[in-house]
Write a structure and sequence with these properties.
Elements (H helix, E strand, L loop, with lengths): L1 H8 L6 H14 L17 H22 L6 H18 L2 H6 L14 H13 L6 E3 L2 H4 L5 E3 L1 H7 L28 E4 L1 H5 L7 H7 L7 E5 L2 E5 L7
Helix pairs in contact: 1-2, 1-3, 2-3, 3-4, 8-10
Length: 236
């Protein structure tokens, strides 16, 4: 609300370009509304413009207040200081949470719970796989693996099933670098991000269940990360 008010107050001869850039860029960004109900990380690029709009808007309001109420000229310096002090006071409310790393955010469920757990799981998998083995793993862990990988969405697309917005229409097998079917994997890695997001996309969960992963034995776990082994897997 403060940013919008600042943009409106910038619709003046000297500062209109700030309002046009901020409002125009915001309009272009909101054409992709997929993430709006959750969080909108793309909007970070417009934050500096919105901050400028707020600053110039407050500057205009302070000057207008001085003229409207015939306040002493020194009040023009005091009003911005009061507004800055108010902003600092509001920020101080969250300071301890920021410094302790406990500031709640709406994106928290989509952030890995423990980088250390992911690192340890990756080390274990790398020690038990060869370069041409396949592991089904979410990419936040899969990028550390030294073997063939595919996430549950890629595996779903390989099976010819829609996988949300990533693969609404499954591509043909010649688009894949290797067999990405769950049945061809040596391990299936279940992470917190699979459960929070990936398995809810398209037919991903149904594909996992149809592949019989529920019956695969657990061979390793670290925190929220679990590694299941394919009992039918054979070295090619």
């Amino acid at each position: 609300m403060a940013a919008l008010l600042g943009c409106l107050l910038c619709l003046r001869r000297r500062t209109y370009i700030i309002a046009f850039m901020a409002l125009g860029l915001t309009f272009l960004l909101t054409q992709n509304r997929q993430n709006l109900p959750l969080f909108y990380y793309q909007a970070m690029i417009v934050f500096p413009l919105l901050a400028l709009a707020i600053i110039f808007g407050l500057q205009f309001l302070s000057s207008l207040t001085v003229r409207k109420f015939s306040l002493p000229i020194n009040a023009r310096r005091v009003i911005p200081l009061v507004l800055i002090a108010l902003s600092l006071a509001l920020g101080a409310r969250n300071l301890l949470a920021v410094l302790s790393g406990n500031l709640p955010t709406r994106v928290a469920p989509w952030v890995i719970s423990s980088p250390t757990d992911y690192d340890e799981a990756a080390k274990w998998i790398n020690a038990h796989t060869d370069a041409d083995d396949l592991v089904i793993s979410y990419w936040t862990l899969g990028w550390q693996l030294k073997c063939h990988t595919a996430d549950v969405l890629t595996a779903c697309a390989w099976a010819g099933r829609p996988a949300g917005d990533y693969f609404p229409t499954p591509p043909s097998h010649d688009r894949f670098r290797w067999d990405s079917g769950i049945g061809s994997a040596k391990y299936f890695v279940l992470t917190d991000l699979d459960q929070a997001w990936a398995l809810a996309q398209g037919d991903a969960l149904a594909n996992v269940r149809d592949s019989g992963v529920d019956n695969w034995p657990l061979v390793y776990s670290c925190g929220t990360t679990r590694v299941l082994e394919n009992p039918k897997w054979k070295k090619k």
